[in-house]
Design a protein that fits this description.
Blueprint: E1 5-9, H1 14-25, E2 29-34, H2 39-47, E3 52-56, H3 63-72, E4 79-84, H4 105-115, H5 117-133, E5 136-140, H6 156-179, E6 184-189, H7 212-225, E7 234-236, E8 241-242
Parallel strand pairs: 1-2, 1-4, 2-3, 4-5, 5-6, 6-7
Antiparallel strand pairs: 7-8
Helix pairs in contact: 1-7, 4-6, 5-6
């Protein structure tokens, strides 16, 4: 039985919840964060009483990340992975800024706060654990955050905040790698997934739309097969590198 633990940020979201279930089935201890709704996590805890712990986290409150770190010390042994599933497409169901006329400063700042900054705070507070245990730090990013892959434009908030996230991952990799080359820091494009976040923006999509269960399994499979040479990269869920 594994004595490792996995910390999943945004474990109450559609993809995060699926990854949580998979990690538990693979005998990992799991600490999962939620923002408001913890109903599904509490139901899951009935099955995994001693393996699952949950804690509320507001991504806009830095002190909450310290609370997650403190909570993580209460159970499990070595830290296998930190998985960040926190993210948003648009603020308050507004248009996802497809054109310059749609840009709103408040909404854009909120998008940075949810899509870009949490990974930096996770790395800040868990740096010692990542180095001590040669842990993975992976975050769900997006291919649309690739600057070189951008051929259609639009989606200003989502593209720019994911591009910023990708740069954050590269920076974190460079800093951690100097101290612990065996730690793996990377961003993962999970593929287009039907979820509460995306369901209003899927019309016209011609490529495959995955279910949360499919995406959760794809992300876990990739996480389990990562090599040190993958660190500092943006990876498609199928393992192929996506250019920054």
């Amino acid at each position: 039985m594994s004595m490792n633990k996995v910390i999943i940020f945004g474990a109450n979201g559609d993809i995060g919840f699926e990854i949580t279930k998979i990690a538990l089935k693979n005998n990992f201890y799991v600490l999962g964060t939620y923002h408001k709704d913890k109903t599904n996590l509490e139901k899951l805890k009935l099955t995994y009483k001693d393996k699952l712990e949950i804690i509320q986290l507001n991504a806009l409150n830095e002190d909450d990340f310290q609370q997650v770190l403190d909570k993580s010390h209460s159970f499990g042994a070595s830290l296998f992975a930190l998985i960040n599933c926190i993210g948003t497409v648009s603020f308050s169901d507004q248009t996802p800024m497809k054109s310059l006329k749609d840009i709103n400063q408040e909404d854009l700042q909120y998008s940075f706060s949810i899509n870009s900054i949490p990974t930096l705070l996770i790395a800040k507070y868990f740096k010692k654990e990542i180095i001590k245990y040669s842990s993975h730090l992976v975050t769900l990013s997006a291919m649309v955050g690739s600057i070189s892959d951008n051929r259609s434009g639009g989606w200003y908030a989502y593209r720019t905040t994911k591009a910023a996230l990708n740069m954050a991952i590269k920076n974190i990799h460079l800093e951690i790698n100097r101290l612990k080359p065996k730690s793996i820091i990377c961003a993962i494009h999970p593929g287009t997934t039907f979820s509460k976040l995306s369901k209003n923006y899927l019309s016209g999509i011609k490529h495959e739309i995955l279910s949360p269960r499919q995406t959760g399994q794809n992300v876990w499979n990739l996480l389990s097969s990562l090599k040190t040479s993958d660190s500092g990269k943006l990876l498609h869920w199928n393992g192929k590198e996506i250019p920054w």
